[in-house]
Write a structure and sequence with these properties.
The protein is of the alpha+beta class. The chain folds into six domains: 68 residues, Nucleotidyltransferase, domain 5 (2-Layer Sandwich), CATH 3.30.420; 121 residues, Rossmann fold (3-Layer(aba) Sandwich), CATH 3.40.50; 228 residues; 74 residues, OB fold (Dihydrolipoamide Acetyltransferase, E2P) (Beta Barrel), CATH 2.40.50; 70 residues, OB fold (Dihydrolipoamide Acetyltransferase, E2P); 137 residues, Glucose Oxidase, domain 1. Helices cover 25% and strands 30% of the residues. Strands 26, 28, 43, 44, 45, 46, 47, 48, 49, 50 and 51 form an eleven-stranded mixed beta sheet that branches. Helix 9 crosses helix 12, helix 12 crosses helix 15 and helix 16 packs antiparallel against helix 17. The longest helix has 26 residues. The chain is globular. The relative contact order is 0.08.
């Protein structure tokens, strides 16, 4: 029989296994692990795969199966009408298809339209899922979000020339409008509504399409995947989907309720199987390497310090986590590093579990009055409710029989007890729970194998590759119990014992089965019968620690988790080098604007070469034809008085029922446009007209003689004003109104002749002044160079020469200035640093950073820095690393990492020789899903 080779292409590592078939029995033959090569400089996933395969088999003729989360996995941007309804359905559809959600946008996501658009433009999704509005329901809100997407125009993470697939699964009456708005910019697919009614979900069509697009589109453009698709014996499967298949097998094999946790470098996946119903969530930015800084940010540094010995200082902890994020593939062998990584895993599990509960279950702690009415179990244990296929189900925390840990942090443990405590401290299970681990992280491999060779997958399931390591007993008791109060008496190994509130007791595994008899104290719930069989080879932890006390140091000592202590080797980054070359700077506006530079023109750093003079244009959705019953499209069309591309004014008649329409008996009124705009689209079936804002604004002030036009006294103007000073008004909006007997109706309404802000209301002169206060965003060249290309009104490229110095991370906005080198704090106050790029030949502290920023330096460059000083300087904790737009004053570029490392004397000498030259700084950093590293470039000034 052919050897079966299965590979999981992860964010950081490619793990490959060989499966042999001897006499009809499948078993694990060999395992290998190599770095994944989907990112630069390799940019070909085949390289890491072939390295991995060559270690485990020399056969040339084998069956190959692959799962993948490389490059960040299947990354989906979700758009819905509201966060609670359609966006929530969109998230469930994405998770169920094996996706990772980059972000979720909705009308009520607490971001304004501009911020939504800027956030979307920074993302690089594999696909976009748009939902919103029940069939026959809301249209306007969905279209507003679609228009923001159209303006933002995100690009894919691997190939910017391809169109991103977009699925519209919302109100079917809006499908035509959505097609018209984004059909040319995205590869659009119209699918049945995810939420056809408020109480109905229809996820399957969208999930199937997502998986199809993942294979046919996303994988086709990821580096090396087009070649890989031709070599595999079955479709490449998203890793989380393969893990879910394995969980289903385990559930069927053991008939138990299971929660499984897969902690990766970038994400933590949570899977649940309760009463045969499967759910999954992905916590997209809770991981052990790429997302380590975000775990620290979300959990808080105090939660991590509580899990660690006092010898690890806050700065050591922060710097280690920051360096792990910057160098995700580096592994550490020392004890402190292992303890930090396992502490990260515990807090990531806790947060991921909460997200899973919030996503799929209605859960809460039962109040005191409810307890009086409830049954025995309800008095003690959290109750969960969920809906599956319109049926309501419930379960209790004590109903969870098995917890499974999978992922690198579990396979890297020195002893099984460490893996057990990661799950126990992260999840805090109640009552009696078996603790399992996936010893070699083979859940993805077994899952994809189950689709083609189910018998082989079942053999591997039974071969202890995924197996229990211990039993955890945690009685549920009142947290007000005194620490001397006995919670439970029990018999183990033939010996009687008891445990008090706040205590824990550990029993090592033995080579034989053991009977445990439990007797809970009054008002204590342990959730099972009096007798339990503890299988041979399993340890036992009886855990009565209080909910808010993990007692980390006592547990570590009592269980002897981390001995002997192995000292750290230290991080040895490559030396920094200046590299001469020709470079290209691409400047892309977030939405259409003005490009002032011409192709072939020379440019200097301070030249403004592009700008966005206005906010993004607004989109107006006008319901020109009202009423429950709409006329035929042909009758609506002949009654419309406007055409595509036409400019219409506020109060212009745009719809007037024709004779044919009137003859149908439908009572429809004439309709006047409430706004001024350009006709983008007319949907004749629904009678909707889509207008875009016309931005022909003048920045000159315009004075309107309100008192004279209304024939009133200036001092009484406020009685008639409809707008206040400081209000922003659009052309055609009513400024003042006089509704009195004898007043000419034609002169009773004064409308704004222009768009802008009311800057003055003068009750002496009787005037109102309107001025469009320009909020232009200018884009400077920042380099000495030549404009090499101009792409319409949104993008241009500059070619330039210089010596480039690569960095590991940066924060702030792109900038430039004369280079100056400083070697000590005392020199800062003696030098003029405004608009200069300051290179520090020593590690700065917070006071140093603030002193330089106070002088308005353009940027600060340093080899090393403490993460805490950086966070305090920026006034934000770095989390998800996609930087380059922070408003922090002086931008920061870090060449090597965090902590107190050695300085590079050769680099300092070279930079001293280049003082006074122009230095361009690009801090933009992304370390996942298309790596971008920051840099500085030193240039000769050209006259």
């Amino acid at each position: 029989m052919k050897t079966i080779v299965i590979s999981d292409l992860g964010s950081t590592k490619t793990k490959t296994v060989a499966i042999s078939n001897i006499d009809g029995r499948y078993s694990l033959k060999a395992i290998s692990k190599h770095d994944t090569t989907v990112e630069a400089p390799s940019n070909d996933v085949i390289i890491g795969l072939e390295n991995s395969i060559s270690e485990i088999t020399q056969d040339k003729d084998f069956e190959l199966y692959c799962t993948s989360s490389a490059g960040g996995g299947l990354q989906i941007l979700v758009i819905g009408l509201t966060m609670f309804d359609s966006a929530s359905s969109g998230k469930r559809a994405a998770y169920g298809a094996g996706g990772v959600i980059l972000d979720t946008f909705a009308l009520d996501d607490k971001r304004n339209a501009i911020q939504q658009m800027l956030d979307i433009s920074k993302l690089h999704p594999d696909m976009i899922l748009i939902s919103g509005g029940t069939d026959g329901g809301a249209i306007t809100g969905v279209l507003r979000l679609v228009e923001i997407l159209r303006l933002a125009k995100p690009v894919p993470k691997f190939e910017s020339k391809t169109k991103i697939p977009a699925i519209f699964a919302g109100n079917q009456e809006a499908a035509g409008l959505v097609q018209n708005l984004i059909g040319e910019d995205f590869e659009l697919f119209i699918l049945p509504n995810l939420r056809p009614s408020l109480d109905t979900e229809n996820l399957k069509p969208s999930q199937e399409k997502i998986q199809e697009l993942f294979m046919e589109n996303v994988m086709e453009h990821a580096p090396g995947y087009s070649k890989l698709k031709k070599r595999v014996n079955a479709q490449i499967m998203p890793t989380p989907l393969a893990v879910l298949q394995t969980l289903q097998l385990l559930s069927q094999e053991h008939s138990k309720n299971i929660f499984a946790f897969d902690i990766g470098g970038a994400t933590t996946d949570v899977f649940s199987c309760i009463n045969g119903h499967f759910q999954r969530t992905v916590s997209a930015n809770l991981g052990m390497s790429y997302s380590a800084l975000n775990v620290m940010k979300e959990a808080g540094i105090e939660k991590l310090l509580e899990l660690l010995p006092s010898r690890i200082s806050e700065d050591e902890l922060r710097n280690f986590i920051a360096n792990k994020t910057l160098h995700p593939t580096i592994t550490y062998d020392d004890t402190d590093a292992m303890m930090i990584e396992q502490a990260l895993a515990k807090v990531a599990l806790k947060m991921a579990l909460k997200q899973h509960k919030d996503m799929h279950f209605n859960w809460n702690k039962i109040g005191y009055l409810d307890k009086l009415k409830a049954g025995d179990k309800d008095k003690y244990v959290d109750k969960f409710e969920y809906i599956e296929q319109e049926n309501k189900y419930s379960f209790y925390a004590s109903d969870i029989d098995i917890l499974i840990g999978t992922g690198g942090v579990f396979t890297a443990v020195n002893i099984p007890k460490q893996a057990m405590m990661i799950l126990v401290d992260g999840i805090r299970p109640s009552c009696v729970t078996e603790i399992w681990i996936d010893k070699h992280f083979l859940s993805p491999h077994i899952g994809i194998l189950s689709q083609s060779k189910p018998d082989a997958a079942k053999d591997l399931i039974k071969s202890d590759l995924i197996s229990p390591i211990g039993l955890h007993i945690a009685p549920v008791f009142s947290q007000k119990l005194d620490s001397k109060a006995i919670v439970m008496e029990y018999l183990v190994d033939g010996k009687r014992d008891f445990i008090t509130a706040g205590a824990f007791k550990y029993y090592e595994a033995t080579g034989k089965d053991r009977i445990i008899r439990l007797k809970a104290a009054k008002n204590v719930f342990v959730g099972t019968g009096d007798e339990i069989v503890l299988k041979a080879g399993l340890c036992l932890l009886v855990d009565c620690r209080y909910e808010d006390e993990l007692q980390a140091e006592q547990v570590n000592s009592s269980l002897d988790l981390y001995s002997p202590v192995i000292d750290a080797q230290g991080l040895l980054p490559m030396p920094s080098r200046l590299v001469s070359g020709n470079w290209t700077l691409d400047i892309e506006l977030p939405y259409k604007g003005l490009i002032s530079g011409m192709q072939g023109a020379k440019c200097e750093p301070m030249d403004v070469i592009a700008s966005n003079p206005y906010d993004p244009p607004r989109l107006y959705i006008v319901q020109a034809v009202s009423g429950e019953k709409k006329p035929e499209a042909r009758l609506t069309k002949e009654s419309m008085l406007i055409k595509l591309g036409e400019t219409i004014e506020a109060d212009q008649l745009i719809f007037s029922p024709s004779a044919s329409l009137t003859a149908t008996g439908l009572k429809l009124n004439k309709f006047y446009s409430p706004v001024r705009g350009r006709v983008e689209y007319i949907e004749y079936n629904s009678g909707i007209v889509v207008l875009s804002e016309i931005q022909d604004y003048s920045s000159k002030p315009l004075t309107i003689e309100i008192a004279q036009l209304l024939n009133i006294k200036p001092k009484s103007m406020y009685r008639y004003m409809q707008k206040e000073k400081g209000s922003f008004v659009y052309r055609g909006e009513v400024l003042a109104r006089r509704l009195e007997a004898g007043v000419n109706p034609l002169s009773s309404h004064i409308k704004a002749p222009n768009t802008g802000t009311i800057t003055d209301i003068d009750t002496v002169k009787g005037t109102v002044t309107i001025q469009y206060l320009a909020k232009a965003t200018d884009y400077r060249a920042n380099v000495w160079g030549e404009i090499s290309s101009v792409d319409s009104d949104r993008m241009l490229s500059i070619s330039y020469q210089g010596e480039r110095l690569d960095a590991v991370i940066g924060f702030g906005k792109a900038s430039g200035g004369d280079l100056i080198v400083i070697g000590r704090d005392q020199d800062i106050s003696l030098l003029a640093l405004e608009a200069k790029v300051v290179f520090l030949s020593y590690s700065p502290d917070l006071n140093t950073l603030r002193a330089i920023a106070k002088q308005k330096a353009a940027a600060i460059v340093t080899e090393w820095i403490n993460e805490r000083d950086l966070a305090q300087y920026m006034n934000i904790e770095p989390g998800v690393i996609n930087t380059g737009s922070e408003d922090i004053g002086s931008s920061i570029l870090i060449l090597k990492g965090f902590g107190a490392g050695n300085t590079d004397s050769d680099l300092i000498k070279n930079l001293h020789q280049r003082q006074g030259k122009h230095c361009y700084i690009d801090p933009h950093t992304r370390i996942r899903a298309g790596v971008i590293r920051p840099f500085a470039c030193i240039q000769e000034k050209k006259t």
